[in-house]
Design a protein that fits this description.
With about 50 residues, the protein is an alpha+beta fold. The chain has helices at about 5-10, 35-45, and strands at about 25, 35. The chain is about 30% helix and about 10% strand.
Length: about 50
């Protein structure tokens, strides 16, 4: 039985944080692909501002 490439790589496990490799708490909006912890550390450098 041969597995197609599309079937092999599916689900949440293939999306990882670019900085630390974590798969939980991922921010995908604006194609960031950074977990929320890394985002808090580097958001100011990327040009995001904290409101509220």
């Amino acid at each position: 039985m041969q597995i197609r490439l599309e079937e092999k790589f599916k689900g949440k496990g293939i999306r990882k944080c670019r900085m630390c490799g974590n798969v939980r708490g991922l921010i995908r909006s604006h194609r960031l692909y950074i977990c929320r912890k890394c985002f808090r550390e580097s958001a100011k450098g990327m040009g995001f501002k904290k409101y509220g």
